[in-house]
Design brief:
single chain; alpha/beta; Rossmann fold; 2 domains; seven-stranded mixed beta sheet; 11 helices; 39% helix
Length: 246
């Protein structure tokens, strides 16, 4: 996993152009973390973003990457006659299929003012999956959040998914279940090392998650922390935030 640590926008541009990597490695995951799981991930996303199953919605995906997940989203949008906007690097977007209902925006979100202005208050579904921890390093968090919220239509939904929360991770690896998980995975009798009350720069913890909820609620949106389906590969140490505009 070390080669996938501390990645930024320019790193993903490089990964996307590397033909020696798998589609999962190009988005920063070892194959074992995504291969065989993406249908379940997409099903979990659809359960939370139920606007996706309506007709004729405006859909916006921040950092879709190039695995099968955005392809599933593209096909669903085709079936449901949605309009879809994808914002990512040109290198990533080039690896995804083109379609008349898909607008590809090569940019480091939210540095795409014309698109944000055109879609302000019009987006019914906004997806940001496995991306927030990179945003947290590359972009002012509240600027990212505020501009994203400004896109939502009345009844619009935003899912900030697959958030690696170090506080949740510590709670898990401090539990009996987490200790057994670690020992089996690492083939060791030693318990995992867990250190509470320690500064961890550039990491998302409970304080960041709750700050997002408070910021969104203070702006007039409903916001919730929601668990992932236990069948997902990192559900024991990651979680989602669902935000809706009343």
């Amino acid at each position: 996993m070390n080669r996938f640590a501390n990645l930024g926008f320019e790193d993903f541009r490089r990964l996307a152009a590397d033909e020696k990597l798998s589609k999962y490695e190009r988005i920063g995951f070892p194959d074992s973390y995504r291969e065989g799981f993406e249908e379940a991930i997409f099903a979990d996303i659809r359960r939370k973003l139920f606007n996706l199953d309506r007709q004729g919605q405006q859909v916006f995906d921040i950092g879709p990457g190039c695995s099968d997940l955005p392809r599933m989203l593209i096909e669903l949008c085709r079936e449901r006659t949605h309009q879809l906007t994808l914002v990512d690097s040109q290198e990533m977007l080039a690896l995804l299929p083109d379609a008349a209902f898909v607008e590809k925006v090569p940019a480091l979100y939210p540095d795409c003012p014309p698109v944000l202005e055109a879609l302000a208050g019009k987006v019914d579904v906004l997806l940001c999956y496995s991306v927030l921890h990179y945003v947290f390093v590359d972009t002012p968090l509240f600027r990212f959040l505020d501009l994203s919220l400004s896109l939502l239509s009345p009844g619009g939904q935003m899912l900030i998914g697959d958030i690696p929360n170090v506080s949740k991770r510590k709670r898990f690896f401090s539990s009996e279940t987490g200790v057994r998980y670690h020992q089996q995975f690492m083939q060791t009798s030693e318990p995992p090392v867990v250190e509470f009350n320690a500064l961890e720069p550039d990491q998302i913890d409970d304080s960041v998650v709750f700050a997002i909820l408070q910021r969104a609620r203070a702006a007039g949106f409903d916001a919730y922390v929601v668990p992932q389906d236990p069948a997902l590969p990192m559900a024991n140490r990651r979680e989602d935030i669902l935000i809706t505009r009343p």
